Amino acid sequence: MIATRARELIVVTKRYDASCAAFAAMASHGWRIHFVETPAAVARILSQSNRKALAGLVDLTDSQGTVDYARYVQDLPRERMGWVAAIDPGQLEIKDVRHLIRDVCFDFITVPCPETTIESVLGHALGVASLHSESTRHVVQEEEAFGGMIGDSPEMRALYKLIRRAAPSLAPVYIAGETGTGKELAAAAIHHLSHRSAFPFVAINCGAIPQHLMQSELFGYERGAFTGAQQRKLGRFELANKGTLFLDEIGDLPLDSQASLLRFLQEGIIERLGGTDAIRVDVRVVSATHHDLEAAVAAGRFRADLYHRLCVIRLKQPPLRSRGDDIEQLAEHALKLYNGTGQTQMKGFSNCALKAMQTYPWPGNVRELLNRVHQAVVMAEGRYITSKDLGIDASEAGPVQTLAAARDAAEVLAINAALRRNLYRVGHCAKELGISRITLYRLMKQHGLRTEAMERTAEVG
Ligand SMILES: Nc1ncnc2c1ncn2[C@@H]1O[C@H](COP(=O)(O)OP(=O)(O)OP(=O)(O)O)[C@@H](O)[C@H]1O
């Protein structure tokens, strides 16, 4: 097996070799380049390479008239390969060349072509092939699809159920919810549970791209579409072909892109900037925003017809403050994630921190919780994270209460956490808390925890 960290490129050609300036430059940038003459030789190199994807340049320039285009269409390996065709300017007139580009290649270059363009187009093709091979390798099972989403509160269980129902459909999905609630994770789960899971999941944050670049970012552009457009570039729609496109912060989409998106949703076609061809793409659109999209429609900033097309299926991501025990589960997850990044190895959360997290309103939701725990792990001086380490003011953490009530609340939190950690095995949990099983049963009964724990035991068993 060839084990190398270099990017690999296979060039199928009868006339170029390593002395060609463009390839020499790429080799000096760390590319490992194989020159071959036949598709069979490509297959041999692929079988020896342990890279998840390779770039390929198929040289179709044909001064001698010896290239068999139809054979290339049939025989060039496609799995793990990101192909680019090199052609002479007039060759687009040849039907077999057009078919080869359409069916096998991510892109084409016309020679002569600047060295930097060749490298950047091949780098792009390699990136797309890696993305594709990544998603093909993971035919994701249901548990895996939700693997990134922590929480089993009734709110989250209801959401998982809706995601499972929505996933197999072709209809566009709109996910509402406050910032940081996990809308992107939900969109990824929809993709992984759909029949499209072997194809790319492409996400774009419409709020993070300058408005004047949005159209080309989404729909791509043709060579010469504007100053500096030296090569055709595929947009996110084409990159997501056969897969799912997640449009985050859809409310920030400029009006011209709204019109193009509507056309896609109605007719399934897009147009590259500077192009005239209508290109058919097969993409499922999932969109989200934490802003009030209805208000944007009412204010005329968002097209009502587009809004209705996007919201065929509508999901709502619950805010963290309504997710009860999930808060502690997520905090434990964050602690595992970040523990060790500070100077002290933290042992857990103090009772005051657990209590504060339950009553704090979490305006930034899960993202804020992850950040606060991360900061606490780095900055805390003790072994247990306190509410002060989390930066949550005690006055924000709920009303003043009697000592007895505070003790009860702390007991409930500690028992619940121990039960969860020990998968609701009461014996293990009592041992961890340093009390007898009988005392634990008594406390659980006193705080009304008994029934719930027993039900969970039955579920786990
Ligand atoms: N249920 C969850 N389990 C684990 N991590 C989560 C969960 N929900 C969200 N996160 C994490 O919280 C962070 C924010 O999530 P995400 O980006 O999906 O939120 P969002 O709702 O799309 O936010 P925004 O509206 O600001 O784009 C990410 O790091 C994500 O991995």
TrEMBL record:
<feature type="domain" description="Sigma-54 factor interaction">
    <location>
        <begin position="149"/>
        <end position="378"/>
    </location>
</feature>
<dbReference type="InterPro" id="IPR045343">
    <property type="entry name" value="VpsR"/>
</dbReference>
<dbReference type="InterPro" id="IPR009057">
    <property type="entry name" value="Homeodomain-like_sf"/>
</dbReference>
<dbReference type="InterPro" id="IPR002197">
    <property type="entry name" value="HTH_Fis"/>
</dbReference>
<keyword id="KW-0238">DNA-binding</keyword>
<keyword id="KW-0804">Transcription</keyword>
<dbReference type="InterPro" id="IPR025944">
    <property type="entry name" value="Sigma_54_int_dom_CS"/>
</dbReference>
<protein>
    <submittedName>
        <fullName>Sigma-54 dependent transcriptional regulator</fullName>
    </submittedName>
</protein>
<keyword id="KW-0547">Nucleotide-binding</keyword>
<keyword id="KW-0805">Transcription regulation</keyword>
<dbReference type="InterPro" id="IPR058031">
    <property type="entry name" value="AAA_lid_NorR"/>
</dbReference>
<dbReference type="Pfam" id="PF20161">
    <property type="entry name" value="VpsR"/>
</dbReference>
<dbReference type="Pfam" id="PF25601">
    <property type="entry name" value="AAA_lid_14"/>
</dbReference>
<dbReference type="Pfam" id="PF02954">
    <property type="entry name" value="HTH_8"/>
</dbReference>
<keyword id="KW-0067">ATP-binding</keyword>
<dbReference type="InterPro" id="IPR002078">
    <property type="entry name" value="Sigma_54_int"/>
</dbReference>
<dbReference type="InterPro" id="IPR025943">
    <property type="entry name" value="Sigma_54_int_dom_ATP-bd_2"/>
</dbReference>
<dbReference type="InterPro" id="IPR027417">
    <property type="entry name" value="P-loop_NTPase"/>
</dbReference>
<dbReference type="InterPro" id="IPR003593">
    <property type="entry name" value="AAA+_ATPase"/>
</dbReference>
<dbReference type="Pfam" id="PF00158">
    <property type="entry name" value="Sigma54_activat"/>
</dbReference>
